[in-house]
Amino acid sequence: MALDAMTRTRTETDSLGSLEIPEDAYWGIHTARALENFPIAKRPISVYPDLVVALAMVKQASARANAEIGDLDAEKADLIDRAAQLVIDGQYHEQFVVGVIQGGAGTSTNMNANEVITNIALELAGREKGDYAFLSPIDHTNRSQSTNDVYPTAIKIGLALTLQSLLDELSLLRQAFLAKAVEFHDVLKVGRTQLQDAVPMTLGQEFHGFATTLGEDHNRLKENAYLLYEINMGATAIGTGITAHSGYSSAVLHQLRRITELDLETAVDLVESTSDTGAFMSFSASLKRNAVKLSKICNDLRLLSSGPQAGLGEINLPARQAGSSIMPGKVNPVIPEVVNQVAFAVVGADMTVTMAVEGGQLQLNAFEPVIAHSIFQSITWMRQAMWTLRVNCVEGITANRERLGAMVGSSVGVVTALTPFIGYAASAALAKTALLTNRNVADLVVEAGLMSREEVQKQLSPARLSGLETITAAIPIVQAAEDLVVAEKD
């Protein structure tokens, strides 16, 4: 019985001929041909649920708009509307089976949506799947539409929906870095430029910088998201609106705004909008920016935790797994490493988007499927990378306070804070002595008679060294400083 049920089929026909479709499938012949033609990525469009939801929103809005302008029977429009809502609510997503990479400028995806929503609607009407004489995927569900306006509009809406989850995770990651900035606010360390010792700062300032750069990316992503709000519904094939009612474009925009709660606008020039995919390139570039900056932060985390004995060893990352099959006790920075790799993939995906945008010809860009896949994958991977970085790394970072304190004490960089008081030349001489003897800079200053112990301690306090407390007035450079320089020359 089970075997019979699995092998039962229905016959569907298109302009190329007939095919047997599994009886329980909600997709139809156009989807079946796509499954035969594009066994490329082995990943169905359902891996991007927000894209599926967006397709259903477009079909729902179109049904409502066509009913409003009198271009579709109210009963049929209601059936399509209700079927689309079920998909929006998360049902039937497994029926969206065409591959994410496909030829045809997205026609297979549009037809997959048309067929699934139509067959759901047929069941709601108490009819059999495939009863297209009553309700047709093309004549009714696709009324007033073309793949060339449905597909890019659905991509834009889907990206806007899925972006919010990325922004939410980005905000949480930023907050995690801010929490560490507070925790490490009084931990002095040596800052570095060009991988060489520079001047002191606090570990809190370093982590606050990470949080700030992520906050800037949050703003840039939101700004670029508005590029996605210009749609071309009503353009149909090439932007001329052929086969669409004159009132359809404004009606469908109104319905889409209500359904999506996005500030969508219809493009002024539908011919241009149908052929132009520049918005995707700009949006992808903002994702690349975020990925590259996040990767830089992970580079810093790996450097700061390097060692732990023979490296910088300033911070400790949470131990997540054994780091070697041959070296006992080795623990690697696997979480920052995986985020780095995600960033590399996002950079590559952005190049794919760029080339696909450039590859458009005349009135249409045929390469929107790879554009959609590249950007959706980037957002998905970035969101998950941010989650694992926050939960499995940042929240558990600790500071090696004693090591940091010792490094600051012996660092010649602290002498920079004393130059307003003893002069650059004397400071340089002291730095040289400290490097040669590995002695504490403060001790050398006091021994040279350049400043009192109390004054040195005041100027080398964490607040002064990190710039949190500014120097209000410099004391006159003492004569002993000149004597020190002369002694160094001798």
From TrEMBL:
A single Gene Ontology CC term: cytosol
Annotated signal sequence range: none
Single GO biological process annotation from the record: aspartate metabolic process
Domain Fumarate lyase N-terminal: 18-348
One GO MF term attached to the UniProt entry: aspartate ammonia-lyase activity
Residues in Fumarase C C-terminal domain copies: 415-465
Keyword Lipid metabolism (UniProt): no
Keywords in alphabetical order: Lyase
Keyword Lyase recorded: yes
EC numbers on record: 4.3.1.1
PROSITE patterns: FUMARATE_LYASES (PS00163)
Regions that span the bilayer: none
InterPro entries tied to this protein: Aspartate_Ammonia-Lyase (IPR051546), Fumarase/histidase_N (IPR024083), Fumarase_C_C (IPR018951), Fumarate_lyase_CS (IPR020557), Fumarate_lyase_fam (IPR000362), Fumarate_lyase_N (IPR022761), L-Aspartase-like (IPR008948)
Top-level taxon: Bacteria
Coiled coil location: none
A Pfam family that the UniProt record links to this protein: FumaraseC_C
UniProt enzyme class: lyase
Protein name: Aspartate ammonia-lyase
